[in-house]
UniProtKB/TrEMBL annotation:
The encoding gene: pgi
E.C. number(s) listed in UniProt: 5.3.1.9
Molecular functions (GO terms): carbohydrate derivative binding; glucose-6-phosphate isomerase activity; monosaccharide binding
Pfam families listed in its UniProt record: PGI
Location(s), subcellular: Cytoplasm
UniProt GO BP: gluconeogenesis; glucose 6-phosphate metabolic process; glycolytic process
Protein's name according to its UniProt entry: Glucose-6-phosphate isomerase
Keyword Isomerase (UniProt): yes
Role, per record: Catalyzes the reversible isomerization of glucose-6-phosphate to fructose-6-phosphate.
Source organism (scientific name): Paenimyroides ummariense
Active site: 345 (proton donor), 376, 494
Taxonomic superkingdom: Bacteria
Family: Belongs to the GPI family.
UniProt keywords, alphabetically: Cytoplasm, Gluconeogenesis, Glycolysis, Isomerase
UniProt key word Isomerase: yes
Length: 529
């Protein structure tokens, strides 16, 4: 089945949402809470060890009814079924989209997924136990993951998020082509106890191959056999073999798994090395639970669906251009960067599924940073700026190591959403003019947020959280009538960079627009001086 091609703005629900928006656009959440002191009961979802409170949004019951009607008008249920049953919904690349297959329970796994997981398990266990050794017979102490985009962000995020589950192996991530970082890492490590994991679905990505070349030479300079120290994860096995990787050291990836959705596959090898295969399986299991929730829960209680609809409400009706994600735990520092790829590479599209330019906004801009750090950086703008930034606050009830400090962290977590919603009145409009700065101290509140409160950051809950955002992204792309699983814009950049690289190497700049030619010539002229 190909996905339906409905312009969402032509649905009945969209028209009604537009009218409803004019009715409620100036309504203050503070008033809604006053009118209905049990409002939170209408707008929260409790699922497993997740509590999602979405009551601090500029919504009424009617808003949710209409948003759900929008999902129904475009037959979101059919879209979810098409995704989960492996229809070829990545039509522009003629591919299925089956990252959810990677996290199915063993009894439901396909043979190739089961075989790849077995291969990962055997390999990670033998490296962790020290049975598999480098050329000089020493066990590995360090792992370098070389990859970029989806071949880096997801695995790196999970490795950092599960730092408390880490074993003795130290996993390092190299993505950018920044030689200073590479030199720094080489100086820190012993080549003979280092394992390199090259991760590239295409095995043609300039950054990854160039960085791998440097580490390959480093291993050779240290008198080591590269086949004892480099393994690869790729769907382009011939190219990996050509690079000198032995077939048994190549872990598969498949066309039906997009780079930004691939951390669940062997792309997660470095993560599994860091935390052990059993924890990697728990991560998959947590994601699978979210898949079940997404597939089987009515839209009104369906976390990814509700979060996606709220985001559409702000993006397409209020015209708020960005949204933030603020996790209150340092271990999720990478989450905003990871979500930027998932969300913006997926839904940064302006042509609809019929091939016409869209006449409405699509992909939101997502950004963020951990709390409380972000409170001391950009929250001033959240509270008093002219822009409204709907924000997801993500917090955990139990820290890994119990400590009184956690209450302090969480006090901030709760205080921010309260302040954003309620604001604070100044007293400048009274006769009391004792504080000449009162006008500057007022903040009006009415700034929306979702609170995602999770029991504890574990491999399982992390899997569920990441799958939640994947599905949220899918729902939005589906409703916006765009193709969420290609990324032609990024690929074009890769082609141009390759061309320019050849020109720089040949010291000869070819035909470009005058700005690019000017910059390239300036670079060439000055780099050798
Ligand atoms: O950044 C663009 C992109 O195509 C991503 O989709 C992908 O995750 C990344 O490049 C890396 O690609 P590869 O895994 O093929 O090296």
């Amino acid at each position: 089945m190909s996905l339906p091609k409905n312009n969402p703005t032509e649905t009945q629900a969209w028209q009604k949402l537009r009218e409803h928006f004019y009715e409620v656009q100036f309504v203050k959440m503070q008033e809604l809470f006053k009118e209905n002191p049990t409002r939170v009961n209408d707008f929260n979802i409790v699922w497993n060890d997740f509590l999602v409170d979405f009551s601090k949004n500029r919504i009424t019951g009617k808003t949710i009814d209409l948003l759900v009607q929008l999902a129904e008008d475009v037959d979101l249920k059919a879209g979810i079924n098409a995704l989960l049953s492996g229809e070829t919904i990545n039509e522009t690349e003629d591919r299925k989209v089956l990252h959810t297959d990677l996290r199915k329970k063993p009894e439901n796994q396909t043979e190739e997924v089961a075989a790849a997981l077995k291969q990962m398990q055997q390999f990670t266990e033998s490296v962790i136990l020290g049975d598999l050794k480098g050329s000089t017979g020493k066990a590995f102490t360090d792992v370098i993951n070389i990859g970029i985009g989806g071949s880096d962000l997801g695995p790196k995020l999970v490795t950092e998020a599960l730092a408390d589950y880490k074993n003795h192996l130290n996993v390092h991530y190299i993505s950018n082509i920044d030689n200073d970082t590479i030199e720094c890492l080489k100086n820190k490590l012993q080549a003979e106890t280092t394992l390199v994991v090259m991760v590239s679905k295409s095995f043609t990505t300039l950054e990854t191959i160039s960085n791998a070349d440097i580490f390959k030479n480093w291993l050779l300079q240290n008198g080591l056999k590269t086949q004892d120290h480099i393994v690869a994860v790729s769907s382009n096995i011939p190219e990996a073999v050509k690079y000198g990787i032995e077939t048994q050291n190549i872990f598969p990836m498949w066309d039906y798994v997009g780079g930004r959705y691939s951390l669940w596959s062997a792309v997660g090898l470095s993560t599994a090395l860091s935390v052990g295969f059993a924890n990697f399986e728990k991560l998959l299991n947590g994601a699978n639970k979210m898949d079940q929730h997404f597939a089987n829960t009515p839209f009104k209680e369906n976390i990814p669906v509700i979060l996606a609809l709220l985001s559409i409400w702000y993006n397409n009706f209020f015209c708020f251009e960005t949204e933030a994600v603020v996790p209150y735990v340092d271990k999720l520092k990478m989450l905003p960067a990871y979500l930027q790829q998932v969300i913006m590479e997926s839904n940064g599209k302006s042509v609809d599924r019929s091939g016409s330019p869209v006449n409405y906004e699509t992909g939101t801009i997502v950004w963020g940073e951990v709390g409380t750090n972000s409170q001391h950086a950009f929250f001033q703008l959240f509270h008093q700026g002219t822009k409204i930034i709907p924000t997801d606050f993500i917090g955990f009830i139990k820290p890994f190591y119990s400590s009184d400090l956690h209450d302090l962290l969480m006090a901030n977590f709760f205080a921010q959403t309260e302040a954003l919603m309620n604001g604070k009145e100044g007293n400048y409009h009274t006769d009391d003019d004792t504080d000449k700065n009162a006008v500057y101290k007022e903040f009006k509140g009415n700034r929306p947020s979702n609170t995602i409160l999770i029991n504890k950051l574990t491999p399982e809950s992390l899997g569920s959280l990441l799958a939640l955002y994947e599905h949220k992204t899918f729902v939005q792309g589906y409703i916006w009538n765009i193709y969420s699983f290609d990324q032609f814009g990024v690929e074009y950049g890769k082609v141009l960079a390759n061309n320019i690289k050849s020109e720089l190497q040949a010291n000869e700049i070819k035909k470009h627009d005058c700005s690019t030619a000017f910059l390239l010539n300036h670079y060439l002229k000055n780099k050798s001086e």
